[in-house]
Design a protein that fits this description.
This protein has 434 residues and is an alpha/beta fold. The protein is built from 18 helices and 14 strands. The longest helix has 32 residues, at 200-231. It binds nicotinamide-adenine-dinucleotide. Nicotinamide-adenine-dinucleotide (NAD) binds next to helix 1 and helix 5.
Amino acid sequence: MQVAMIGAGYVGLVSGACFADFGHTVCCVDKDPAKIEALNRGEIPIFEPGLADLVAKNVREGRLTFTTDLAPTVRNAEAVFIAVGTPSRRGDGHADLTYVYQAARDIAAAIDGYTVVVTKSTVPVGTGDEVERIIRETRPDADFAVVSNPEFLREGAAIADFKRPDRIVIGTEDERAKGVMTDLYRPLYLNQSPLLAMSRRTAELTKYAANAFLATKITFINEIADLCEQVGANVQDVARGIGLDNRIGSKFLHAGPGYGGSCFPKDTLALIKTAQDYEAPIRIVETVAAVNSQRKRAMGRKVIAACGGSVRGKTIAVLGLTFKPNTDDMRDAPSIDVITALQDAGARVKAYDPEGMGAAKAMLTDVDYATDAYDCARDADALVLVTEWDLFRALDLRRLKTALAAPVVVDLRNVYRPDEMRRHGFTYVSIGRP
Ligand SMILES: NC(=O)c1ccc[n+]([C@@H]2O[C@H](COP(=O)([O-])OP(=O)(O)OC[C@H]3O[C@@H](n4cnc5c(N)ncnc54)[C@H](O)[C@@H]3O)[C@@H](O)[C@H]2O)c1
Protein backbone atom coordinates (compact mmCIF):
# COMPACT_ATOMS: atom_id res chain seq x y z
CA MET A 1 0.00 0.00 0.00
CA GLN A 2 1.19 3.58 -0.73
CA VAL A 3 1.30 5.64 2.45
CA ALA A 4 1.99 9.35 2.97
CA MET A 5 3.01 10.41 6.48
CA ILE A 6 2.60 14.15 7.04
CA GLY A 7 4.95 15.21 9.86
CA ALA A 8 8.22 13.36 10.45
CA GLY A 9 8.57 13.95 14.20
CA TYR A 10 8.58 11.40 17.04
CA VAL A 11 5.30 9.83 15.91
CA GLY A 12 5.46 10.33 12.13
CA LEU A 13 8.98 9.03 11.73
CA VAL A 14 8.47 5.97 13.92
CA SER A 15 5.08 5.15 12.36
CA GLY A 16 6.41 5.69 8.84
CA ALA A 17 9.45 3.47 9.43
CA CYS A 18 7.31 0.74 11.01
CA PHE A 19 4.69 0.77 8.22
CA ALA A 20 7.57 0.53 5.71
CA ASP A 21 8.94 -2.40 7.68
CA PHE A 22 5.54 -4.12 7.34
CA GLY A 23 6.06 -3.91 3.56
CA HIS A 24 4.12 -0.76 2.68
CA THR A 25 5.71 2.00 0.59
CA VAL A 26 5.94 5.09 2.77
CA CYS A 27 6.92 8.66 2.05
CA CYS A 28 7.36 10.95 5.08
CA VAL A 29 6.68 14.62 4.40
CA ASP A 30 7.82 17.41 6.66
CA LYS A 31 7.70 21.15 6.16
CA ASP A 32 11.04 21.52 7.96
CA PRO A 33 13.67 21.30 5.17
CA ALA A 34 16.55 20.82 7.66
CA LYS A 35 14.83 17.71 9.05
CA ILE A 36 14.24 16.24 5.59
CA GLU A 37 17.78 17.04 4.42
CA ALA A 38 19.15 15.32 7.53
CA LEU A 39 16.98 12.25 6.94
CA ASN A 40 18.06 12.12 3.30
CA ARG A 41 21.70 12.21 4.47
CA GLY A 42 20.93 9.21 6.68
CA GLU A 43 20.86 11.20 9.95
CA ILE A 44 18.05 10.69 12.45
CA PRO A 45 16.91 14.01 13.94
CA ILE A 46 15.70 12.46 17.23
CA PHE A 47 17.06 9.91 19.70
CA GLU A 48 14.88 6.79 19.78
CA PRO A 49 16.44 3.37 20.41
CA GLY A 50 16.48 1.19 17.26
CA LEU A 51 15.10 3.89 14.97
CA ALA A 52 18.32 4.62 13.06
CA ASP A 53 18.71 0.96 12.03
CA LEU A 54 15.03 0.58 11.13
CA VAL A 55 15.06 3.72 8.98
CA ALA A 56 18.35 2.76 7.27
CA LYS A 57 17.07 -0.74 6.45
CA ASN A 58 13.81 0.46 4.92
CA VAL A 59 15.48 3.29 2.98
CA ARG A 60 18.00 0.78 1.61
CA GLU A 61 15.24 -1.60 0.58
CA GLY A 62 13.39 1.21 -1.20
CA ARG A 63 10.23 1.36 0.91
CA LEU A 64 10.91 4.59 2.84
CA THR A 65 11.60 8.06 1.44
CA PHE A 66 11.55 11.64 2.75
CA THR A 67 10.47 14.87 1.10
CA THR A 68 9.22 18.39 1.71
CA ASP A 69 7.01 18.11 -1.37
CA LEU A 70 3.56 17.19 -0.08
CA ALA A 71 1.47 17.36 -3.26
CA PRO A 72 2.97 14.52 -5.36
CA THR A 73 3.28 12.33 -2.27
CA VAL A 74 -0.40 12.73 -1.38
CA ARG A 75 -1.48 12.32 -5.00
CA ASN A 76 0.11 8.85 -5.10
CA ALA A 77 -1.08 7.69 -1.67
CA GLU A 78 -4.03 5.52 -0.72
CA ALA A 79 -3.67 6.46 2.95
CA VAL A 80 -2.46 9.86 4.15
CA PHE A 81 -1.59 10.14 7.84
CA ILE A 82 -1.59 13.45 9.68
CA ALA A 83 1.12 13.19 12.38
CA VAL A 84 1.85 16.87 13.01
CA GLY A 85 2.13 18.48 16.43
CA THR A 86 -0.87 19.54 18.54
CA PRO A 87 0.75 21.62 21.30
CA SER A 88 -1.13 23.56 23.96
CA ARG A 89 -2.49 26.82 22.63
CA ARG A 90 -0.70 29.68 24.34
CA GLY A 91 -2.93 31.28 26.94
CA ASP A 92 -5.84 28.88 27.30
CA GLY A 93 -4.60 25.26 27.16
CA HIS A 94 -6.83 24.16 24.27
CA ALA A 95 -5.06 21.97 21.71
CA ASP A 96 -3.59 24.20 18.99
CA LEU A 97 -4.94 22.71 15.76
CA THR A 98 -3.23 25.13 13.39
CA TYR A 99 -0.83 22.48 12.06
CA VAL A 100 -3.56 19.85 11.65
CA TYR A 101 -5.83 22.20 9.71
CA GLN A 102 -2.96 23.46 7.55
CA ALA A 103 -2.06 19.84 6.75
CA ALA A 104 -5.74 19.17 5.90
CA ARG A 105 -5.79 22.11 3.46
CA ASP A 106 -2.50 20.98 1.86
CA ILE A 107 -3.79 17.40 1.56
CA ALA A 108 -7.14 18.52 0.12
CA ALA A 109 -5.46 20.36 -2.73
CA ALA A 110 -3.52 17.24 -3.76
CA ILE A 111 -5.95 14.32 -3.28
CA ASP A 112 -6.37 12.14 -6.35
CA GLY A 113 -8.63 9.06 -6.38
CA TYR A 114 -10.13 7.44 -3.27
CA THR A 115 -7.95 8.47 -0.31
CA VAL A 116 -8.21 7.69 3.38
CA VAL A 117 -7.03 10.64 5.47
CA VAL A 118 -6.02 9.38 8.89
CA THR A 119 -5.53 11.60 11.93
CA LYS A 120 -2.76 10.10 14.05
CA SER A 121 -2.08 13.32 15.93
CA THR A 122 -3.83 13.57 19.30
CA VAL A 123 -6.80 15.82 18.57
CA PRO A 124 -9.91 16.91 20.48
CA VAL A 125 -13.30 15.37 19.79
CA GLY A 126 -14.77 16.78 16.61
CA THR A 127 -11.45 17.55 14.89
CA GLY A 128 -12.10 14.78 12.36
CA ASP A 129 -15.40 16.49 11.47
CA GLU A 130 -13.54 19.76 10.86
CA VAL A 131 -10.79 18.05 8.80
CA GLU A 132 -13.54 16.48 6.69
CA ARG A 133 -15.26 19.86 6.28
CA ILE A 134 -12.01 21.56 5.23
CA ILE A 135 -11.24 18.92 2.60
CA ARG A 136 -14.82 18.91 1.32
CA GLU A 137 -14.85 22.73 1.09
CA THR A 138 -11.48 22.86 -0.71
CA ARG A 139 -12.24 19.95 -3.03
CA PRO A 140 -15.98 19.25 -3.39
CA ASP A 141 -15.09 16.65 -6.05
CA ALA A 142 -12.71 14.59 -3.88
CA ASP A 143 -13.39 10.94 -3.02
CA PHE A 144 -12.12 10.49 0.54
CA ALA A 145 -12.83 9.42 4.11
CA VAL A 146 -11.42 10.87 7.34
CA VAL A 147 -10.47 8.32 10.00
CA SER A 148 -9.18 8.73 13.55
CA ASN A 149 -6.30 6.39 14.47
CA PRO A 150 -4.76 7.72 17.68
CA GLU A 151 -1.22 6.65 18.50
CA PHE A 152 -0.34 5.15 21.89
CA LEU A 153 3.41 4.61 21.46
CA ARG A 154 5.78 5.73 24.22
CA GLU A 155 9.00 7.54 23.43
CA GLY A 156 11.96 5.38 24.40
CA ALA A 157 10.08 2.19 23.49
CA ALA A 158 8.34 3.53 20.41
CA ILE A 159 9.20 0.82 17.88
CA ALA A 160 8.20 -2.06 20.14
CA ASP A 161 5.01 -0.21 21.07
CA PHE A 162 4.14 0.40 17.42
CA LYS A 163 4.89 -3.16 16.36
CA ARG A 164 3.28 -4.87 19.34
CA PRO A 165 0.55 -2.50 20.49
CA ASP A 166 -1.90 -3.40 23.27
CA ARG A 167 -4.60 -2.34 20.82
CA ILE A 168 -5.16 -0.43 17.60
CA VAL A 169 -8.02 2.06 17.66
CA ILE A 170 -9.76 2.81 14.37
CA GLY A 171 -12.43 5.50 14.41
CA THR A 172 -14.65 5.55 11.34
CA GLU A 173 -18.14 4.65 10.21
CA ASP A 174 -16.99 4.27 6.59
CA GLU A 175 -16.73 0.56 5.72
CA ARG A 176 -14.42 1.17 2.77
CA ALA A 177 -12.02 3.16 4.96
CA LYS A 178 -12.17 0.47 7.62
CA GLY A 179 -11.05 -2.02 4.98
CA VAL A 180 -8.05 0.15 4.06
CA MET A 181 -7.09 0.53 7.74
CA THR A 182 -7.39 -3.22 8.33
CA ASP A 183 -5.10 -3.88 5.34
CA LEU A 184 -2.56 -1.37 6.65
CA TYR A 185 -2.44 -2.98 10.07
CA ARG A 186 -2.88 -6.56 8.90
CA PRO A 187 0.63 -7.65 9.94
CA LEU A 188 -0.20 -6.64 13.51
CA TYR A 189 -3.67 -8.03 13.44
CA LEU A 190 -2.19 -11.42 12.58
CA ASN A 191 -0.05 -11.09 15.73
CA GLN A 192 -3.33 -10.76 17.62
CA SER A 193 -3.12 -7.10 18.53
CA PRO A 194 -6.81 -6.27 18.91
CA LEU A 195 -8.14 -3.84 16.32
CA LEU A 196 -10.95 -1.85 17.91
CA ALA A 197 -13.40 -0.24 15.53
CA MET A 198 -15.48 2.60 16.89
CA SER A 199 -16.92 5.94 15.86
CA ARG A 200 -14.49 8.70 14.96
CA ARG A 201 -15.46 10.88 17.92
CA THR A 202 -15.14 7.94 20.31
CA ALA A 203 -11.65 7.17 19.00
CA GLU A 204 -10.59 10.80 19.46
CA LEU A 205 -11.82 10.76 23.06
CA THR A 206 -10.29 7.34 23.81
CA LYS A 207 -6.78 8.75 23.35
CA TYR A 208 -7.38 11.58 25.82
CA ALA A 209 -9.10 9.27 28.29
CA ALA A 210 -6.07 6.94 28.22
CA ASN A 211 -3.54 9.72 28.85
CA ALA A 212 -5.68 11.40 31.51
CA PHE A 213 -6.12 8.09 33.33
CA LEU A 214 -2.37 7.40 33.32
CA ALA A 215 -1.63 10.95 34.51
CA THR A 216 -4.16 10.41 37.30
CA LYS A 217 -2.52 7.15 38.34
CA ILE A 218 0.90 8.83 38.56
CA THR A 219 -0.49 11.77 40.49
CA PHE A 220 -2.31 9.45 42.88
CA ILE A 221 0.86 7.61 43.85
CA ASN A 222 2.75 10.92 44.10
CA GLU A 223 0.26 12.19 46.67
CA ILE A 224 0.38 8.88 48.53
CA ALA A 225 4.19 9.35 48.57
CA ASP A 226 3.76 12.76 50.21
CA LEU A 227 1.56 11.18 52.85
CA CYS A 228 4.12 8.38 53.34
CA GLU A 229 6.73 11.03 54.15
CA GLN A 230 4.48 12.48 56.84
CA VAL A 231 3.52 9.18 58.47
CA GLY A 232 6.78 7.28 58.09
CA ALA A 233 5.50 4.76 55.51
CA ASN A 234 7.24 3.52 52.34
CA VAL A 235 5.56 4.36 49.03
CA GLN A 236 7.36 1.60 47.13
CA ASP A 237 5.84 -0.99 49.44
CA VAL A 238 2.42 0.66 49.15
CA ALA A 239 2.74 0.65 45.33
CA ARG A 240 3.62 -3.04 45.34
CA GLY A 241 0.90 -3.77 47.84
CA ILE A 242 -1.76 -2.24 45.64
CA GLY A 243 -0.19 -2.92 42.22
CA LEU A 244 -0.31 -6.69 42.58
CA ASP A 245 -4.09 -6.35 42.68
CA ASN A 246 -5.02 -7.04 39.05
CA ARG A 247 -7.77 -4.46 39.20
CA ILE A 248 -5.11 -1.80 39.86
CA GLY A 249 -1.98 -3.06 38.07
CA SER A 250 1.61 -2.19 38.94
CA LYS A 251 2.47 0.08 36.00
CA PHE A 252 2.55 3.86 36.44
CA LEU A 253 2.75 3.54 40.21
CA HIS A 254 6.27 4.93 40.59
CA ALA A 255 6.33 8.02 42.74
CA GLY A 256 8.51 10.78 41.31
CA PRO A 257 8.85 14.46 40.52
CA GLY A 258 5.57 14.70 38.59
CA TYR A 259 4.71 13.75 35.02
CA GLY A 260 6.11 15.74 32.10
CA GLY A 261 6.84 15.16 28.46
CA SER A 262 5.24 16.05 25.18
CA CYS A 263 1.87 14.40 25.86
CA PHE A 264 0.45 14.16 29.40
CA PRO A 265 0.68 17.87 30.34
CA LYS A 266 -0.86 19.15 27.11
CA ASP A 267 -3.37 16.33 26.71
CA THR A 268 -4.77 16.63 30.25
CA LEU A 269 -5.19 20.38 29.70
CA ALA A 270 -6.88 19.88 26.34
CA LEU A 271 -9.28 17.29 27.79
CA ILE A 272 -10.15 19.66 30.64
CA LYS A 273 -10.94 22.40 28.12
CA THR A 274 -13.06 20.15 25.90
CA ALA A 275 -15.00 18.88 28.92
CA GLN A 276 -15.65 22.43 30.16
CA ASP A 277 -16.81 23.51 26.69
CA TYR A 278 -19.34 20.67 26.63
CA GLU A 279 -20.43 21.44 30.22
CA ALA A 280 -19.27 18.05 31.45
CA PRO A 281 -16.21 19.12 33.49
CA ILE A 282 -13.84 16.32 34.52
CA ARG A 283 -12.92 17.61 37.96
CA ILE A 284 -10.61 14.72 38.78
CA VAL A 285 -8.38 15.60 35.81
CA GLU A 286 -8.54 19.32 36.65
CA THR A 287 -7.16 18.43 40.08
CA VAL A 288 -4.52 16.11 38.65
CA ALA A 289 -3.21 18.84 36.33
CA ALA A 290 -3.13 21.42 39.14
CA VAL A 291 -1.44 19.04 41.61
CA ASN A 292 1.15 18.00 39.05
CA SER A 293 2.14 21.49 37.99
CA GLN A 294 2.65 22.50 41.66
CA ARG A 295 4.65 19.37 42.30
CA LYS A 296 7.40 19.92 39.77
CA ARG A 297 8.49 23.21 41.35
CA ALA A 298 7.99 21.76 44.83
CA MET A 299 10.77 19.33 43.95
CA GLY A 300 13.11 22.34 43.77
CA ARG A 301 12.06 23.23 47.34
CA LYS A 302 12.74 19.64 48.39
CA VAL A 303 16.33 20.04 47.19
CA ILE A 304 16.66 23.37 48.99
CA ALA A 305 15.42 21.75 52.23
CA ALA A 306 17.94 18.91 51.80
CA CYS A 307 20.67 21.57 51.53
CA GLY A 308 19.72 22.98 54.93
CA GLY A 309 17.20 25.58 53.78
CA SER A 310 19.28 27.66 51.38
CA VAL A 311 21.10 27.09 48.11
CA ARG A 312 22.22 30.69 47.59
CA GLY A 313 25.74 30.62 46.19
CA LYS A 314 25.77 26.81 46.16
CA THR A 315 26.33 24.55 43.16
CA ILE A 316 23.73 21.86 42.53
CA ALA A 317 24.47 18.95 40.19
CA VAL A 318 21.49 17.69 38.19
CA LEU A 319 21.62 14.22 36.65
CA GLY A 320 19.07 13.66 33.91
CA LEU A 321 17.21 16.39 32.01
CA THR A 322 14.85 14.65 29.60
CA PHE A 323 11.32 13.90 30.82
CA LYS A 324 12.18 10.20 30.90
CA PRO A 325 15.10 7.94 29.90
CA ASN A 326 15.81 6.82 26.33
CA THR A 327 14.59 9.96 24.64
CA ASP A 328 16.08 13.36 23.88
CA ASP A 329 12.68 15.01 24.34
CA MET A 330 12.79 17.95 26.77
CA ARG A 331 9.21 19.15 26.26
CA ASP A 332 7.66 19.93 29.68
CA ALA A 333 10.39 17.94 31.45
CA PRO A 334 10.23 18.21 35.27
CA SER A 335 13.97 19.09 35.22
CA ILE A 336 13.06 22.51 33.80
CA ASP A 337 10.92 23.40 36.85
CA VAL A 338 13.44 21.93 39.30
CA ILE A 339 16.34 23.84 37.74
CA THR A 340 14.53 27.17 37.49
CA ALA A 341 13.35 26.85 41.12
CA LEU A 342 16.96 26.27 42.20
CA GLN A 343 18.26 29.16 40.07
CA ASP A 344 15.54 31.46 41.46
CA ALA A 345 16.79 30.57 44.95
CA GLY A 346 20.33 31.63 44.01
CA ALA A 347 21.93 28.28 43.10
CA ARG A 348 24.34 27.60 40.24
CA VAL A 349 23.28 24.51 38.30
CA LYS A 350 25.52 22.01 36.59
CA ALA A 351 23.79 19.28 34.61
CA TYR A 352 24.45 16.13 32.67
CA ASP A 353 22.17 14.06 30.42
CA PRO A 354 23.31 11.43 27.90
CA GLU A 355 20.96 12.63 25.12
CA GLY A 356 19.03 15.70 26.26
CA MET A 357 21.68 18.42 26.57
CA GLY A 358 21.29 19.64 22.98
CA ALA A 359 17.57 20.32 23.43
CA ALA A 360 18.11 21.59 26.99
CA LYS A 361 20.52 24.29 25.85
CA ALA A 362 17.72 25.91 23.87
CA MET A 363 15.31 25.84 26.84
CA LEU A 364 17.44 26.63 29.91
CA THR A 365 19.77 29.53 30.63
CA ASP A 366 22.88 29.77 32.84
CA VAL A 367 23.36 26.01 33.19
CA ASP A 368 26.86 24.52 33.01
CA TYR A 369 26.94 21.20 31.19
CA ALA A 370 29.15 18.34 32.34
CA THR A 371 30.76 15.51 30.36
CA ASP A 372 29.56 12.67 32.62
CA ALA A 373 27.93 12.03 36.00
CA TYR A 374 31.15 12.36 38.03
CA ASP A 375 32.20 15.53 36.23
CA CYS A 376 28.73 16.86 37.04
CA ALA A 377 29.10 15.97 40.74
CA ARG A 378 32.58 17.51 41.06
CA ASP A 379 32.65 20.18 43.81
CA ALA A 380 28.83 20.38 43.91
CA ASP A 381 27.06 21.00 47.22
CA ALA A 382 24.32 18.48 46.37
CA LEU A 383 23.36 16.11 43.60
CA VAL A 384 19.80 15.67 42.30
CA LEU A 385 18.80 12.65 40.26
CA VAL A 386 15.91 13.78 38.05
CA THR A 387 15.80 11.22 35.20
CA GLU A 388 16.52 7.54 35.79
CA TRP A 389 18.76 6.75 32.81
CA ASP A 390 20.33 3.28 33.17
CA LEU A 391 23.68 5.06 33.26
CA PHE A 392 22.74 6.59 36.62
CA ARG A 393 21.44 3.39 38.22
CA ALA A 394 24.77 1.93 39.30
CA LEU A 395 26.99 4.91 40.02
CA ASP A 396 30.24 4.26 41.90
CA LEU A 397 29.11 5.66 45.25
CA ARG A 398 32.63 6.07 46.63
CA ARG A 399 33.71 8.02 43.58
CA LEU A 400 30.55 10.11 43.74
CA LYS A 401 31.09 10.97 47.40
CA THR A 402 34.71 11.97 46.74
CA ALA A 403 33.64 14.19 43.84
CA LEU A 404 30.94 16.07 45.76
CA ALA A 405 31.83 19.01 48.01
CA ALA A 406 29.02 17.90 50.35
CA PRO A 407 27.59 14.35 50.32
CA VAL A 408 23.94 15.33 49.74
CA VAL A 409 21.90 13.30 47.24
CA VAL A 410 18.26 13.99 46.38
CA ASP A 411 16.92 11.04 44.41
CA LEU A 412 13.63 12.05 42.76
CA ARG A 413 13.24 8.58 41.14
CA ASN A 414 13.93 6.31 44.13
CA VAL A 415 16.75 4.58 42.24
CA TYR A 416 19.00 4.00 45.27
CA ARG A 417 18.39 2.28 48.59
CA PRO A 418 18.23 4.62 51.58
CA ASP A 419 20.14 2.22 53.89
CA GLU A 420 22.95 1.76 51.36
CA MET A 421 23.25 5.49 50.72
CA ARG A 422 23.44 6.23 54.44
CA ARG A 423 26.01 3.49 54.92
CA HIS A 424 28.16 5.29 52.33
CA GLY A 425 27.82 8.47 54.36
CA PHE A 426 25.38 10.39 52.19
CA THR A 427 22.61 12.64 53.40
CA TYR A 428 20.02 10.98 51.21
CA VAL A 429 16.51 12.18 50.43
CA SER A 430 14.11 10.31 48.15
CA ILE A 431 10.38 10.28 47.46
CA GLY A 432 7.96 8.80 49.98
CA ARG A 433 10.46 6.56 51.77
CA PRO A 434 11.75 6.77 55.34
N1 LIG B 1 5.60 12.07 21.04
C1 LIG B 1 4.86 11.08 21.51
O1 LIG B 1 5.31 10.26 22.33
C2 LIG B 1 3.43 10.92 21.06
C3 LIG B 1 2.73 9.73 21.35
C4 LIG B 1 1.42 9.59 20.92
C5 LIG B 1 0.80 10.63 20.23
N2 LIG B 1 1.49 11.79 19.98
C6 LIG B 1 0.81 12.85 19.22
O2 LIG B 1 1.30 12.83 17.89
C7 LIG B 1 1.35 14.15 17.35
C8 LIG B 1 2.77 14.45 16.87
O3 LIG B 1 3.63 14.45 17.98
P1 LIG B 1 5.22 14.44 17.82
O4 LIG B 1 5.79 14.28 19.19
O5 LIG B 1 5.60 13.47 16.75
O6 LIG B 1 5.46 15.94 17.29
P2 LIG B 1 6.79 16.54 16.66
O7 LIG B 1 6.76 17.99 17.00
O8 LIG B 1 7.97 15.71 17.02
O9 LIG B 1 6.59 16.37 15.08
C9 LIG B 1 5.67 17.06 14.31
C10 LIG B 1 6.28 17.31 12.94
O10 LIG B 1 5.27 17.79 12.06
C11 LIG B 1 5.86 18.72 11.16
N3 LIG B 1 4.79 19.53 10.56
C12 LIG B 1 3.95 20.41 11.15
N4 LIG B 1 3.07 20.89 10.26
C13 LIG B 1 3.33 20.29 9.08
C14 LIG B 1 2.74 20.36 7.78
N5 LIG B 1 1.68 21.15 7.51
N6 LIG B 1 3.27 19.60 6.80
C15 LIG B 1 4.33 18.79 7.06
N7 LIG B 1 4.91 18.67 8.27
C16 LIG B 1 4.42 19.42 9.26
C17 LIG B 1 6.83 19.49 12.05
O11 LIG B 1 7.83 20.14 11.28
C18 LIG B 1 7.39 18.36 12.93
O12 LIG B 1 8.56 17.79 12.36
C19 LIG B 1 0.86 15.06 18.47
O13 LIG B 1 -0.51 15.28 18.31
C20 LIG B 1 1.11 14.26 19.72
O14 LIG B 1 0.23 14.60 20.76
C21 LIG B 1 2.79 11.94 20.37
